[in-house]
């Protein structure tokens, strides 16, 4: 029988600052989303992936959905 390990929460001091980590800003500069979207739309057969419901994960995390 498989028993799930309890979730161990870790405090992220940067989470409430609202500021991205410098490494994220370096890889994805602000306002780069339109260029990224345009790039992907040029790929033959590209289409957006649908969102998937993960009810068991949501329940385990104490989320609605």
Span from first to last CA? 27 Å
Which class do the helix and strand fractions yield?
mainly alpha
Could you give the count of β-strands? 0
List unreliable stretches of 5+ residues: none
Strand and helix order: HHH
Short précis:
It is built from three helices and no strands. With 65 residues, the protein is mainly α.
Question: Would you kindly provide a written description of the structure presented here, covering whatever features stand out?
Answer:
The two termini are 27 Å apart. The chain has 65 residues and is an all-alpha fold. The longest helix is centred in the middle third of the chain and has 9 residues, at 33-41. It has helices at 22-27, 33-41, 55-61.
Detail the topology: elements first, then pairings:
Elements: H1 22-27, H2 33-41, H3 55-61
Properties at a glance:
34% helix, mainly alpha, 3 helices, flat, 65 residues
